[in-house]
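Hypothesis: this fold can be encoded by more than one sequence.
Test: take the structure tokens below, design a sequence, compare later.
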């Protein structure tokens, strides 16, 4: 089983990194474009706060979001707030989420996430870590994919490779990092395509970030096109 205690510690560390970095911005910077098309930095910060509350809902047995429309409306409503309001909301929502994890509970139980996706409760802290650290990169304020903790990058590559495994629209693909580690993704069978590069570049492609595969080397065919996350 996933070590949720370790992951919760990593969530706290990632949240502290995020808050420290965001506190150095000003109100004008929040309205500037992020790395995510159509979203300003304020949109990302609003999403991170509401995601913490959504995962609190998951722990307490409620729907993660009232609806997709309500989720989007909340982000749009809060995106334009001044910096101090964003910071307070980020701190308070993170504290509420972490407080919920301190209660006695069955970490082996199955919980329901957005869109009917299910997972073990013990995996939810890692999902929150992904939200905080990957969206920190998305803010476009100097924290890059290469700055992510090595453990985070390894686990997120494995998670995303598994996500696209068995998908018939993705050819069987072997992933090879420059440090010698390997993964498999795509449809079943012997790999038809090999994709090689740094762990950060592989993560960028799998997560639809960065140069989206431009710095990767492929063999056996073109770089596969992945479904949207």
């Amino acid at each position: 089983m996933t070590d949720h205690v370790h992951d919760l510690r990593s969530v706290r560390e990632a949240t502290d990194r995020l808050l420290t970095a965001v506190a150095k911005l000003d109100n004008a910077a929040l309205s500037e474009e992020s790395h995510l098309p159509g979203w300003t930095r304020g949109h990302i910060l609003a999403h991170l706060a509401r995601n913490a509350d959504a995962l609190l809902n998951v722990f307490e047995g409620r729907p993660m979001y009232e609806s997709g429309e309500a989720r989007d409306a909340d982000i749009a409503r809060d995106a334009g707030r001044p910096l101090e309001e964003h910071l307070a909301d980020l701190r308070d929502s993170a504290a509420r989420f972490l407080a919920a994890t301190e209660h006695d509970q069955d970490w082996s139980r199955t919980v329901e996430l957005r869109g009917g996706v299910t997972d073990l409760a013990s995996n939810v802290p890692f999902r929150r870590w992904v939200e905080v650290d990957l969206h920190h990169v998305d803010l476009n304020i100097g924290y890059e994919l290469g700055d992510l903790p090595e453990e985070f990058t390894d686990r997120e590559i494995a998670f995303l490779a598994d996500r696209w495994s068995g998908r018939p629209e993705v050819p069987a693909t072997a992933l090879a990092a420059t440090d010698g580690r390997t993964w498999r993704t795509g449809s079943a069978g012997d790999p038809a395509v090999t994709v090689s590069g740094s762990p950060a570049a592989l993560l960028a492609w799998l997560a639809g970030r960065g140069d989206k595969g431009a710095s990767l080397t492929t063999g056996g065919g073109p770089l596969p096109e992945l479904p949207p996350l």
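The longest strand covers residues 173-177. The beta strands are 110-112, 118-120, 173-177, 182-185, 193-197, 217-219.
Hypothesis status: open.
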